[in-house]
Amino acid sequence: MILQQDDQDAGVRRRSGRRSAGHSTACYTGGVSLLEISQRDLRLRSKDIMDAVERGQAFTVTRDGRPMGQLVPLRRQWVTREQFAVSSRLAPRVDPDRLRADSESVIDGELCDPYGR
After folding, report:
1. Three-class DSSP category at 35
2. Of residues 35, 66, 67, 33, the one with CA closest to residue 48
3. pLDDT of residue 59
4. pLDDT grade for 108, boundaries at 50, 70 and 90
5. Alpha helix stretches (DSSP H) within 55-117
6. In angstroms, what CA-CA distances link 93 with 57, 81, 96, 99, 103?
């Protein structure tokens, strides 16, 4: 497998496939570019790769040239303070005594030693 120059933005190497030096292994799915990295690369360069994932880059991890899994950034949905305030106002009121009684009906309140025999 031939290594091409480093991708300046993601800090990862784009690879050429085994069939020919010009065959790129970057896959395109739904507008997201997935770079192929080997299991060995992931092990040796995990910090650089995880930093690239944090910046939004996605990867396909291969073992012996076969795809084994994907590393993709989590899609986090942030809630603004105003959205939280609205949802809090719309939430039902909680009766603390009823909550405690309900919890105690299903949870055994006695402590036990998990290592005791």
Report:
1. strand
2. 35
3. 95
4. confident
5. 81-90, 96-106
6. 43, 20, 9, 11, 17
